[in-house]
Write a structure and sequence with these properties.
344 residues; alpha/beta; three-stranded antiparallel beta sheet; 11 helices; 13 strands
Length: 344
Amino acid sequence: MYELDESKYLYLFAILPVLVVLFLVNLYWQRKKQRAFGNPELVKKLSPERSTFKPALKLVVLLLGLAGIIVALVNPKIGTKTETIKREGIDIVFAIDVSKSMLAEDVVPSRLEKAKQIVSQTINQLGNDRIGIVGYAGSAYPVLPITSDYSVAKMFLQNMNTDMVSSQGTAITDALELSANFFDDPQTSKLIILISDGEDHGEGSGDAAELIAEEGIKIITVGVGTKKGGPIPIKRKGITQTFKRDNAGDVVVTKMYPDQLKTIADITKGGYVYGSSTREVSDYVKNALENIEKTEFESKEVSLYESQFQWFLGAAFVLLFLELFLLERKTAWVRKLNLFNEKE
């Protein structure tokens, strides 16, 4: 078994036939000039030391040397053995609040952007864990099913906004229920990380948390925002035009309510952390994951390949070094053999 590590360099082999064509063109030009100078046989006798074979030999050695360098760049690998790889981790669902209150800028740059930063930094510290994403406001919405592809997860994460859920509010209960049903393997260890300002407009989150706790799922809640709160900006092309107002025309001030988030975490024996510092949250989650039993996701045999570029590179250097010492005149001992009856 073999594989080519950098197959993109194979196009460099196109250089070799170009060099052959240039050699033939040059050879044709030399013979044409010789015929213009005089009788070819007479010209040959005037330069008896010149070999007709050596130039072709130098070209072959040069081409082989260049081919060796190209193959070294491609880096062929040969499978030497197989090994069983086991992946262990837990399933994590991030439930992210995308209600309009998350646009408040009482934390920089905003509650929603801070939530994205927290999730992204947490993903960076994961190992073999699988992740899923749920967005919620007045209702919950599946964003990304359970996956081990972190790059795709970050792409979906950055595209999350407050317009993805039409009904407004902060339905934490719906978010918890959807997150609990998001897990696709009943045998894996599970964790829900809920990020919100805690401004809930529904009931039953405690009951939902109790049902989740019965299934052995822990919940870590992260509070974003401040107790002092802030207005909800209405922007156009990134520039704040005004602020959201109530029916009386007063500017709405949205605050963070950590009590409900702490209650949910306590019910499931998870934990609550204030999300003012992205690093503190990611470190908190990392420490929590170390106390959760890892589950084996999959076990498969993979072939281990070893690079072989060094052999081709070494041969190429030897050939190119040899080419430097190949002269175009005849070799003395070959002349003495007179293989082609060149002596009169």
